[in-house]
């Protein structure tokens, strides 16, 4: 299993603008129907919330961070490359020199920044946290402190943790990357 985790990498696809959601659906359904679930994992369209005030009412819209681009986490093989490359709406991989050449994956540091901005985790290994477990905080304002997990949000890769400060318990929300098991 660890071999698969290390082979997983993120790639950027160029799509027809406005077709990002359709491309995401198409890749997910093709991966399933063509038996590529062990090679094609997550498909992500980076979006950010944008607040807009119209007629005195605040409205939140989702704005694509990179219009015309979709991120895909996959293990690059001839078959997985073919399935993704020939998905309707995909015009090509970014970082490919054409003529059937395989693209360059995103660097870990690049994908971590993108995924963190949209509230997802880039961590490869599955984390098995449990409510009530004590963890050490390794990043952020509470770096070096320990705390108890009170809530786990797997989809967002976030934890609610109670940390003791100045004799009081303080609740904070942390990303999986910000903590380590004791």
TrEMBL record:
GO biological process: DNA-templated transcription elongation; DNA-templated transcription termination; regulation of DNA-templated transcription elongation; transcription antitermination
UniProt domain KOW: residue ranges: 128-155
Keywords: Transcription, Transcription antitermination, Transcription regulation, Transcription termination
SUPFAM superfamilies, per the entry: N-utilization substance G protein NusG, N-terminal domain (SSF82679), Translation proteins SH3-like domain (SSF50104)
Keyword Nucleotide-binding: no
Gene Ontology CC entries for this record: cytosol
Pfam families on file: NusG (PF02357)
Keyword presence, Transcription regulation: yes
Gene3D superfamilies in the cross-refs: 2.30.30.30, NusG, N-terminal domain
Source organism, top-level taxon: Bacteria
Domain NusG-like N-terminal: 7-118
PANTHER family, per database record: RHO-INTERACTING TRANSCRIPTION TERMINATION FACTOR NUSG, TRANSCRIPTION TERMINATION_ANTITERMINATION PROTEIN NUSG
Family: Belongs to the NusG family.
Function noted in UniProt: Participates in transcription elongation, termination and antitermination.
Stated name of the protein: Transcription termination/antitermination protein NusG
Organism this protein belongs to: Carnobacterium alterfunditum
């Amino acid at each position: 299993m660890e071999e698969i985790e290390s082979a997983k990498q993120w790639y950027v696809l160029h799509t027809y603008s406005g077709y990002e959601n359709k491309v995401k659906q198409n890749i997910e359904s093709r991966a399933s129907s063509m038996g590529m679930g062990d090679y094609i994992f997550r498909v992500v369209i980076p979006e950010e919330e944008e607040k807009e005030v119209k007629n005195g009412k605040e409205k939140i819209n989702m704005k694509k961070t990179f219009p015309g681009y979709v991120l895909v986490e996959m293990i690059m093989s001839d078959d997985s490359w073919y399935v993704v490359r020939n998905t309707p709406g995909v015009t090509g991989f970014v970082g490919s020199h054409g003529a059937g050449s395989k693209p360059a994956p995103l660097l870990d540091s690049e994908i971590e920044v993108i995924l963190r901005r949209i509230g997802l985790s880039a961590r490869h290994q599955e984390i098995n946290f449990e409510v009530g477990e004590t963890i050490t905080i390794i990043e952020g304002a509470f770096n070096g402190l320990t705390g108890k997990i009170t809530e786990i949000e797997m989809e967002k890769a976030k934890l609610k943790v109670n940390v003791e400060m100045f004799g009081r318990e303080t609740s904070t929300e942390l990303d999986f990357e910000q903590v380590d098991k004791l």
